[in-house]
Structure formats: C-alpha cells, structure tokens
Amino acid sequence: MKRLSGVLIVALLASFTMVACSSKDSDSDDVAEIKTVGTDDVTETEEVTAEENVEVTITADLLIGANVDDIITKAKEDGIDDVTKNNDGSITYKMSEAKHAEMLEDMKNDVAELVDQVLNRESYRDVKNIEYNDNLSEFTLTVNQEGFALYGQESLVPRLGIQGILYQIYNRTDIDELEVKVNKVDEETGEVFGTTVYPEGFGVAE
User: How would residue 160 be classed by pLDDT, with cut points 50, 70 and 90?
Assistant: First the structure.
C-alpha cells in the first residue's frame, strides 16, 4: 500500500495541529487511525461522553523527524486538551464531534483566505483566478503562463496541494483514495497546460 512520506506528514503537522486518516486495511500500522466512540461502547471505566467522542491516533512512523512535544503543545493551544503521547511513539487526540467539524471548517476558511491573499498580492500578479471544489480535491489556477513560470509563482501549486491533501486526510478519506489535482489554465487560450496530482506530486513511499 502506498503511504505518505514521513517528510510530507511532518510538513502537514507543521501547517496544522493534526493529521488524521482512516484505512480500510485495519491491519496496517502505516496510517493514522480515526475512530468514533459511540455511546454503546462506553463503560463505567472509559467515561467517554458525547462531547468527546472522536479519537485520532497518529502512528509513530508518520511522526519521524517531528518534534512530538511541540505538536502536543500546539494542539493544546488550539483547544484540544486531551492529547496523549503513547509508549509506542504515537499520539492520540480526543475531541468532540463539534470540534472536529470546526477544524474542518477552519481548513476551508484557511484555503479561502490563502486564495484571497494570492489574488490581491503583487508577487502573484500572474495568477488571475483560483477555483476549487467543496472537498478541496481539485484546484484550477488561471494564469499568465509565461509570467507564472518566470517569476517563481509555481510555489503556489504545492501549497494548494498540501491544503487539499490535509483536508482529505482529516476528512477520513481512505489513504489509497487520496487525490488532489491542481490544474493550470492559460488565461489567453483557456486551455490546461499543466496538472499536478498529489500526493504523487510530493513523492510517496511504498
């Protein structure tokens, strides 16, 4: 099974408080695990309430190269009080479904803010328009093709890729189904002259 490289995971964790993904292959240790603790599963010793019923575990192999203590500190600063560093090197977060939904919405707002900044910044003067779908799996940049490549504005492409991949992971997309496309369209011809598909665009490990 393909998995995101450790370098990419560290980059995603550095961008946001946490990364989470679910996999249909329950025997794999290579992915982060999300599970919702339902009320039927609650025992007297577990004491898990409806206000704290989303559990996220980031496995140790995805945290290689990351400062786990810094990640935990950042999570708590962002309002996730129940963060545990496990003996095997993994990290487990617990939060309410409302908090989980809030963080998804925050990710969408971050993308909207990024797009607004790009379209109003001189350093991205050759980016004329940015469109994207609701689940952030496809972005389309309309650009002045020559200027976009000449003045180093290509760095926007992986930035959007990271935003989209992070949202897909956190929105519980199966890791084998992760795909974010960033299309580049020439403003004069209206034709697509380049498409980068992530996570392959970052590099993956088998």
Answer: very high
Interatomic CA distance for residues 63 and 169, integer angstroms = 15
Residue of higher predicted confidence among 166 and 158: 158
Domains of the chain are: 3-96 (no CATH), 100-201 (3.30.300)
Is the model's pLDDT at 131 over the cut of 80? yes
- Asked if residues 5 and 205 have their Cβ atoms less than 8 Å apart, the reply is yes
- Counting Cα atoms < 13 Å in the Cβ hemisphere of 196 gives 21
Angle subtended at Cα 156 by Cα 172 and Cα 180, rounded to the nearest 5 degrees: 30
pLDDT of residue 123: 93
Closest by Cα among 178, 194, 198, 180 to 141: 194
